[in-house]
Design brief:
Number of strands: 10
Helix content: 40-55%
Strand order of the largest sheet: 1-2-8-5-3
Radius of gyration: 21 Å
Structural class: alpha+beta
Oligomer: single chain
Strand content: 5-15%
CATH topology: Cytochrome p450
Amino acid sequence: MAPSATDVERFDLRRPPPGFVDDPFPWYAALRERDPVHHCPDGSLLLTRHDDCLDVYRNADVSSDKRSLFGPKFGATPLFQHHTTSLVFNDPPYHTRVRATLTEALKPRAIEPTVAALERVVDALLDELEARRDVDLIEHFASRVPVEIISTLLTVPREDRDSLRRWSLAILGALEPELSQQQHADGNRAVVEFGDYLHRLIAYRRGHPADSPNDVLATLTALHDRGELNDSELIHNCIFLLNAGHETTTNLIGNGVHCLTEHPEAAALLRARPALIKGAVEEILRFASPNQLGNREVARSTTVGGLRVEPGTQITLCIGAANRDPAQFAAPETFDVERSPNHHLAFASGIHACVGMALARIEGKVAIGALLDRFSTIELRSPPPVRQRIRFRGLERLDLTLTR
């Protein structure tokens, strides 16, 4: 049943209605149609139209700095220090300075050696899947691909990689609109543990340089040694790299394979025409956006969605709703791997467009394409449970039977 006008008027992202996390899309459609610039009970705005979100991403009067938002939420904690130091929640000139370094390290030509490593990782994981036949794709494949690649970029020894997923999930879990005490405690513990580990890893790498053609850790450490990054900036942007490249890419792969099990005609088309995988990844990013929400704060009086808004106003950009806006996408509720054009906002836009989007796209293309090529049948064994998060949309499990 579609949400009523009263339901839409009372909608509160911090206290979502029953069933919202499992299927938010009817709510997104109702908000977009009835109240596209929604005034939330806490005084913030929730935007659900594609053009409104795009305008905010490109609006210089709107800030990504989260100190005023995260101060009351986190207090003087490691979580506050991390999320206000990492690249994504900062404005120029700091953002410009750090982003330039990461952009250079992650541009397509620079990551060519990483792509070769990715193909080897995927092939080895597919061997394991073939031996198992009945698999949880999230545990055995989707979550392992990005951890292996980010670990390669940060030169994390293989024996140390098991903790990375746990740390990442805990730190990103703290970005949910409403936090439990346990999430707060887990997030702070993860920042401390990962920070301590990175201090030890950096000290070790100074004496034992890694034989890696794309050593992002060495690049960031060199910036630190030249005085361009302080100790905190070095550590927290390494943590940011793991977080930015881990859960969202896990969700891209898991959500994508799930979409293909629900649309076997699309899977058949990709097997017949493998060159379509590039567009298929874009459609997965649109249809099942791994990151559903973005946040901004108005820095100077400006116009948002046709309304005049004042400094200090918090804005939530609903990427999941914008990516199904019929004003931008024909038949937006249809999963179409041949969709063109496809101007989705899964990687945001403007100066804060995802710095690692080239790598994420390659990971999705290689992982999903190789899975389809290896297995002639990918059968869903049971309906997959959705991870109970609002911001990051992904699956707890994806139980499949794979046949070569």
